[in-house]
């Protein structure tokens, strides 16, 4: 039984294209708590999804970053 290299390449390309919106959404959700610019973080996370290892490292670093301080709305 032979393995078709074209089919394998198409499968890998499909997985990478599938990872882009997933990584972007995860980066946006984490970025809302960690940054004032979650859209930019979602864009960077989506771009790094082209190389899934870099995307996972980006999400891990983003998750380990400290949260923004809570604003209770009282200006004092």
What does this structure look like?
This protein has 76 residues and is mainly alpha-helical. The protein has a domain at 19-64. It has 3 helices and no strands. Helix 1 (5-34) packs antiparallel against helix 2 (38-48), helix 1 (5-34) packs parallel to helix 3 and helix 2 (38-48) runs antiparallel to helix 3. The longest helix has 30 residues, at 5-34.
Short overview:
This protein is mainly α and 76 residues long.
Structural class, please? Answer: mainly alpha
What is the share of helical residues?
Answer: over 70%
* Strand proportion: under 5%
First and last CA, distance: 74 Å
Indicate the low-confidence ranges by residue numbers. none
Task: Specify Rg, calculated over alpha carbons.
Answer: 17 Å
Indicate the multimeric state.
single chain
Features:
76 residues; 71% helix; rod-shaped
Summarize the topology.
Blueprint: H1 5-34, H2 38-48, H3 52-64
């Amino acid at each position: 039984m032979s393995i078709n290299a074209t089919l394998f390449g198409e499968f890998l390309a499909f997985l990478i294209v599938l990872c882009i919106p997933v990584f972007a959404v995860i980066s946006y959700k984490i970025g809302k708590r960690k940054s004032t610019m979650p859209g930019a973080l979602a864009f960077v996370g989506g771009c790094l999804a082209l190389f899934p290892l870099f995307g996972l490292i980006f999400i891990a670093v983003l998750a380990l970053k400290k949260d923004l301080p809570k604003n209770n709305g009282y200006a004092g």
